[in-house]
Amino acid sequence: MGAEAGCVLAQGPDPVFHHSRAVGAHWWGWRQARTSSCLRHATTASSAWWSPVWPPFGPAPRRAGLVVGLHADRSCKYLLKNTSMPFMNCLFFIGDYTDFYSSRDHATNVGIMFRGKENALMPNWLRLPVGYHGRASSVVVSGTPIRRPSGQMRPDQTKPPVFGPSKKLDIELEMAFFVGGGNPLGEPIPIQKAHEHIFGMVLMNDWSARDIQAWEYVPLGPFLGKNFGTTISPWVVPMEALLPFAEPNPIQDPEPLPYLQHNDAYTFNINLFVSLKGKGMAEAVNICRSNFKYMYWTMKQQLTHHTVNGCNVKPGDLLASGTISGPDPESFGSMLELSWNGSKNIDLGGEETRTFLNDGDEVTISGYCEGDGYRVGFGTCQGTILAALPL
Length: 391
Known about the structure:
alpha+beta, Fumarylacetoacetate hydrolase, domain 2, eight-stranded mixed beta sheet, Fumarylacetoacetase
């Protein structure tokens, strides 16, 4: 991890959780650092590092210098730990979770599969950031196993539905942002100020049971096909660290309504990868390489649209991008697309193939921004599929 991020770490047999900050391959507990004189007197530190809130992030040389300085000072070296930790938890208590559907390539692919090329995008898709309210209680941190869900499905459209474990368990490559500051009920967040409410970003895997989802989603959208588990990476990368990687916003045609218009660049060049390792496989195989810059709707537009009716958001609320797919097959962010709804195999090498997930499959999402001689990393977002429980 080349730049600073934050999560909650726990140590020891009777763990106590600490808000922590990371620079490179090291972290330190925020409370521990604040009570130490080391950072106050370190020649590489500045007031920006000592702010009681999350500050703007210094340039890469200053971050590197801070680590070098603390290593050199024996009295301060104890503050630095390695980022490989046995227990990590989410930095925020997630009160609410909203998932958007903001990748044009993904929405088009899914539309072609189920409605045909002429009706790939619904009439509202190019007019507003489509989204739905998800289940905050089942958002879990990286490393938490995911149980295969059971539910109703209708694999044969000529017969009644059946109940059982999902046979089309899928991944969704996503990113999400945490709300930093909320808004009062009844007072929308204008798009000119939306960035002031966006704290930082994490990686996300929005696990999806496609067969359950296909049967249940009409007319109100996803329910049991989505709410059984959503995995996020533990390290939250603040937006200040991502600003150097801002990209021009996508051309939006038709032009959005005035409340959704903004000219400042607020999409980001974040390289994203998905790997899969099945039982008995010696190593993981990369099945997707995508980029956050492919998103059609920006985070500012998502947040503004979310609140335009007066809906209030609160600190720690989680807003997700939706599946991140690009224009090429290797950049498709779901197995639904990679296997084209199970019609072709995903090659894992050594005669291993998949259309959807098997029990025991381990999926890891990783991502980073590439700077001049440094990276801003997001850590990993990992989960392993457990067999469904008998009912």
